Amino acid sequence: MHLDPEYKIIYGNKAYWKLINIPKEDITGRPCYETVGEYVGDPAKTGKEKICSFCRIAEALESKNQVEIERPFQDRILKVTTVPELDDSGEVCWFTEVIEDITKRRRAEEELIKAHDELERRVDERTFELGIANEDLEHEIAERTRMEEENVRTALMLDIAPNAVTVHDFEGRFLYANQRTFDLHGYSRDEFMSLTLLEIDAPVTAELIASRMQELREHGEATFQVEHTRKDGSILPMEVYARVTSWGDTRAVLSIATDITERKKAEGHLKHALLEKETLLRELYHRTKNNMQVITSLLGLQARGIDDKKTLQILEDTKNRIHSMALVHEKLYKAKNLSKVFLGDYVKDLAEALMKSHNSKIALCVDVDKIPVSIDTITPLGLVINELMTNALKYAFLDRTKGEIIIKASLDESENIELTFSDNGIGMPEDINLDRTGSLGLTIVRTLVVTQIKGKLEMKTQNGTSFTIRFKDKGLPKRI
After folding, report:
1. Number of domains the chain contains
2. Do residue 480 and residue 345 come from a single domain?
3. For the segment 343-362, what is each residue's pLDDT rounded down to a tens digit?
4. pTM exceeds 0.85
């Protein structure tokens, strides 16, 4: 579009009128800040006080140079490039503004940031889990390294150290090695001392020698793991503490190496054991889900011989409660992490199953963030949602074919979860007391929220019924 130096809109193409969705006769010849600006609806501002806070037209007018901004407009984000057009005397006669809708691009960038944050969170969680599993092992390594350093300080040149002790120059030529070194590698003294560091390092770690030497030059010491090749060709895994020292007139590296063959075997056994445990746990979840489905099927068979509607409803409610628990185990069985369920997926599946069970045509809206929840929390929370949903479908929309049920949940910065269940049905009596209600369903809800979830429950009865549950999931490890 075109603007004159007084900000008046003097021309706009079809794309511009379509974008702003305002008839051109309503705004042509009028200042842009009075028609599409940031403060159009602000009665406290008048005249040029309504010029947008992010506007750079004045800057373009003064500098006579092109400027760019990004601004919100309605529910979109626009990139506006303002180009001053000059007359023969070099003065600005009007501005050409090129407007680009970059909403999709910005939304894509936001989604990319969310995906990156989710990946970092998963990495942090996995790091935490591995840290717990290896904590004792790392403590042992630190303690052993400390003891080895003390031995070297007191017996540097004595051939009595319990670990492999070597001294070599920065070219990798050995200047000293103790008997333990020869025993571990299977060489005689003369054979070993004729070799270089490059010749005993296995190919997988030999290529790292140069970077380790550089680290020693810069920091004076380093700890790392290597693989050496024994005389018989077998691999010797070792953990090495190396420190720069003086050997006569030569600047050299003193290394204390520990055979970690057994530790590597133990790590392999530990990984195998963890894999077996995960497999067994997954099978347990699967069988638990199947057993609950069997119970549900038995209740369905039992219901076929019952004519009493009240009894049939009790059996149907019981089946739905069992289904809410079975759904937890189904989610865990399919999940990569066997200790948590994502609340959004679970609530959506549970709510849709209950809608189908009741043959309800009421509108359902589920807006739940992707919040990880432990099995200790999701099971009673699922029962709570089941009771609230069942109660709403049975009683909130009597003799009504239209209505809506909304379920929302979010996680704040302190990792507190807030879940809201609301409907726009006929509502409940304003004087109802959750602490002394005669409803079995509401009694179950209050008991589960207070005693198992350890949360707070609030109920409002204006414009339907709304329940808000606030709690913190204590079953998940804290983020690092």
Report:
1. 4
2. yes
3. 888 888 878 888 887 778 88
4. no
What distance in Å separates the CA atoms of residue 361 and residue 367, rounded to the nearest whole number? 19
Residue 130 scores a pLDDT above 70 = yes
User: Strand 235-247 relative to strand 221-229: parallel, antiparallel, unpaired?
Assistant: antiparallel
Per-residue confidence band for 327, with pLDDT thresholds at 50, 70 and 90:
low
Number of other residues whose CB lies within 10 A of the CB of residue 480: 8
* Same domain, residue pair 279 and 183: no
pLDDT tens for 171-180 read: 899 999 998 8
173-228 tens-digit pLDDT: 999 999 889 989 999 999 999 999 889 988 877 778 888 888 999 999 999 989 89
Q: H helices of 40-169, where?
A: 57-63, 103-154
Structure tokens at 22: 């305002």
Exposure string for 454-478, b = 16+ CB within 10 A, e = fewer: ebebebeeeebbbbbbbbbbeebee
Domain span at 182: 155-259
CA 155/CA 144 separation, integer angstroms: 16
Is residue 382 situated within a structural domain? yes
Residue 389 domain flag: yes
Residue 165 in contact with residue 142, Cβ under 8 Å? no
Residue 445 contacts by C-beta under 8 Å, 6 or more apart in sequence? 384, 387, 388, 457, 467
β-pair type (404-411, 363-368) = parallel
Starting at the earlier edge strand, list the strands of the sheet with 92-101: 9-11, 2-3, 92-101, 76-86, 67-73
Write out the H or E segment, with its range, that includes residue 85.
strand 76-86
Same domain, residue pair 215 and 301: no
